[in-house]
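Need tokens for this chain, all 614 residues.
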Amino acid sequence: MLNDRKIKNKILRRVLILGSFKLIVFSAIIGRLYKLQVVDSEKYKTLSDSNRISIKFHVPSRGKIIDAQGNIIADNKNVYSLTYSYYNRNNIDSVLKSLKNLLNINDEEMVLIFERINNLNKNQKTILLKEYLSWKELSIIYVNIDALPGVRINTASIREYSRGSYYAHTVGYTSYFGDKNKNADYEQNIPFLLKGKNGIEKIYDSFLKGVPGKEEIEVNATGNYVRRLSMITSKPGKDIQLTINSEVQDYAHKAIGPNIGAALVLDAKNGDIICSASTPSYDPNIFSKTLYESSWEKIINSPNAPLVNRPINGLYPPGSTFKPVVALAALQNGLITDKDKIYCNGTYVLGNRKFHCWKNSGHGYLNLSDAIAQSCDVFFYDLALRLGIDKISETAKLLGFGKYYDEYYGIPKSIVPNKKWKKDNFNESWQKGETLNVGIGQGFLLSTPLELAIMTGNIINNGNIISPNIIKSISGENIKNDNLNKGNNFNIEHLNIVKNAMYKVMNSPKGTAWKSRISDEDFQIAGKTGTSQVRIISAKEREAGIIKNEDLPYEKRDHALFIGFAPFKNPKYITTVILEHAGGGASYAAPVARDLLIATRKVIEGKDTEISVS
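Here are the structure tokens for all 614 residues:
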């Protein structure tokens, strides 16, 4: 009996232990099920949806870029591309092997594909495999599509630049968004969304790109389409209209010809850019397709720097085109009147150094107007030394040098030196001889063609200042340009003295640009020639005879410059022309600038200009 009770208790204990264990196990299972189905339901629903639901973005139509007359400069062109939906990661190697054989994909293209795979960000589900499929390639893919799981044919859009190299620096170019950014999301996950990389395409990208559409589709285990769940349509980008006139732009490029350089024409009334030509240039259409590293290296390593937008970013010693700045500074500071004369014998002595005039025999006695017209260096050595570098620098900045306008033009890298600048950059004191060099537009002084055009505009506009503008309208809405709107604090009488002197440059027999004059009384041109030296002429060379420009190595030849405006009595157009290593400004830049102003008048006003002179 006692044994029976013991056996019974033993069995009971085992039942209790086993029951408790089962209870614990079932409780854990129920708890886990509760957590999965209730507590974490949203989490696993999201995970499930991410496997079941595919997000497909729809690329919006990028806004067009058009010229002042409404001609299309940058448009969109539909092309066919291949992508791979990254649901079947295990298939990628076999798919790539098949595609390589079917489409003869070369090794350089394969490297790009693997780069895209390696740079795949966490949210990206699609990889670009091949762009710009031909009709033959399309037919091959259609025939073999069932053997290429995850591969899709997509219609994409690329940029087409109808005017090619003539607008490359202004308009810029685009590329596909975000290939290199692993952590990017949203727009960077859209394989065929174009992003502006340079010029107008970059600065106005937010207007041009539009708003991508978004489609949610249900897919099966192999990533194939089942049904659409939701759809948000894309919104096209806005069209951008420029102030540039394509006929004038084309003419400017042809006028520069084989030279390296820049040519600008601005509306003298408000700063609208009528043309902005930079040579050498490049074809922006090459960036619309796959640009291989070898091709890119060829462009960026070119000694002629075709990517540089010379009108805005080119840096040059302004040479004698800077003399109007020194003249205005001297007038404003009461150091001279137009009646005062300075004697030039061909040499200016400072201490034990001699500073030479371009005319070895000298100009004799000259007043300010004649000194500008004949571009006497000795006259401006004297004025510069009396002024001092800080007053010259201050006047230059008031006339627009070193000024920031907006993101398109960027922060100027020009140099308008003063004592502080040299101390900050070289930890050295400013020397008087350096002031003389700046007085004739040489030395540390560097400026852009755009700054020279703005300076000209600020001298000739009766005390008003102008700012550059290149946008005429956005999405059909005109951009009001009232940049000619406030005084520049210069004495009108002083401005007119300099302006009249620039007239004499072109229209007096001793003026440096006399040979480029025209006879049309309604379109008289005024301006200033410049020849900027890029080498040091030794005393030994001066004694033996200065080597002619054409006998020097190309990189040691002078730059040719000209700034000008027309018509003189009521200025409508401003121009700057710079030809690198071309020679004298009077011989090379002035004729180009004259012809460019005449062409601008013909295109915009429909008027011919009489250029024959006796």
